[in-house]
Amino acid sequence: MKLEGEQTLMRIFVGESDRWQRKPLYEAIVEMLKSEGFAGATVLKGVMGFGAGSVVHSDRLLRLSSDLPVVIEVVESAEMIENVLDRLDEMVSGGMITLEKARVIRYRPEEKK
């Protein structure tokens, strides 16, 4: 699948310690997106942040946190993202999902020989 033109950027904000069926939530989400045929997903681990509970989590040496912020980023068609929002709603209990338009300039999947 080749993405180009206007697509949707979805960001899923969760905590590193969040779980879904005994595995890290971010891992379960990426596996679900892959099984749904998404073009790709990236998991980014934050060094510091706070959420709705206003508790600051940091990776500072003296205050090591076991719940650093994690963001999963996906660029895909609006239709594919809409198709997984109900599943994400079940999985994400203490995070946030944002959606915005994104202009894809280039995407080159590997050609299979």
Automatic annotation (TrEMBL):
InterPro entries reported in the protein's UniProt record: N-reg_PII-like_a/b (IPR011322), N-reg_PII/ATP_PRibTrfase_C (IPR015867), UPF0166 (IPR003793)
Family: Belongs to the UPF0166 family.
SUPFAM superfamilies: GlnB-like
UniProt protein name: Uncharacterized protein
Taxonomy, superkingdom: Bacteria
Coiled-coil spans in chain: none
